From TrEMBL:
Cited Gene3D superfamilies: Immunoglobulins (2.60.40.10)
Source organism per UniProt: Zoogloea oryzae
Name of the protein in its database record: Peptidase C-terminal archaeal/bacterial domain-containing protein
Taxonomic placement: Bacteria, Pseudomonadati, Pseudomonadota, Betaproteobacteria, Rhodocyclales
Length: 208
């Protein structure tokens, strides 16, 4: 570095030696889907440090945690969040933070009401804003034996009434900006041949 006066005359050089530790490299961010934060390893990282905040400056992070794997799935309330991740070497030295990324956690749709007519069931829930909905109706709570699996553009879904038995319903919303809510809590549907021939329970798991 050297100074230059108003006449354009340059002074003597001043120099200083310094060291930059840019290793281990920051991970490459992959996704923040449904609040699940994921990244790809870069270099010789032994573990990672993750910060999550709501202000973008990380002055008072909601989460500041060491992670051994390549993802973190915190339980978050609906809202907008910023997160960043850094690599940590085996000797405990932390590399530089990666670029912060923003994401939105959406509220799951619901609650669901049901009406019956002409041997059909119509499920409905509060909605709006040009959302799309994924609706699944299954014979098991793990949703591996599906009766219906549809993406629809309205906050209602109609299906032929299934045979007497117990069934499970869940749904999620996709918004115009591309963000997707988590699945709603699972609701249990019991159908009967005798009147009243159907009932719908509250979600077994509350909406996040």
């Amino acid at each position: 570095m050297r100074a230059i006066d108003d006449a354009g005359l340059e002074g003597l050089d001043a120099s200083r030696t310094f060291e930059v530790r840019a290793r281990p490299l920051a991970p490459t961010v992959l996704a923040a889907t449904d609040g699940r934060l994921a990244w790809r390893a870069e270099g010789d990282a032994a573990r990672y440090r993750v910060q999550l905040a709501t202000d973008g400056r990380f002055a008072t992070p909601l989460i500041d945690r060491g992670v051994d794997g390549l993802e973190l799935a915190p339980q978050l309330a609906p809202g907008r969040y910023d997160w960043r991740v850094a690599s940590v070497a085996a000797d405990g030295h932390q590399g530089p933070w990666g670029e912060p990324h923003a994401f939105i956690v959406r509220a799951a749709p619901g609650p669901v009401s049901v009406t019956a007519y002409n041997q059909r069931l119509r499920f409905a829930w509060p909605g709006g804003g040009n959302q799309l909905y994924d609706v699944q109706l299954a014979r098991d709570a793990g949703f591996t034996d599906l009766i219906a699996d549809q993406r629809i553009g309205e906050a209602a879904f109609t299906v032929a009434a299934p045979a007497s038995g117990t069934y499970y319903l869940r749904l999620r919303g996709t918004y115009p900006d591309g963000t997707t809510s988590p699945w709603s809590g699972v609701q249990t549907l019991r159908t009967f041949y005798l009147l009243p021939w159907w009932s719908l329970s509250s979600p077994a798991v509350s909406n996040p």
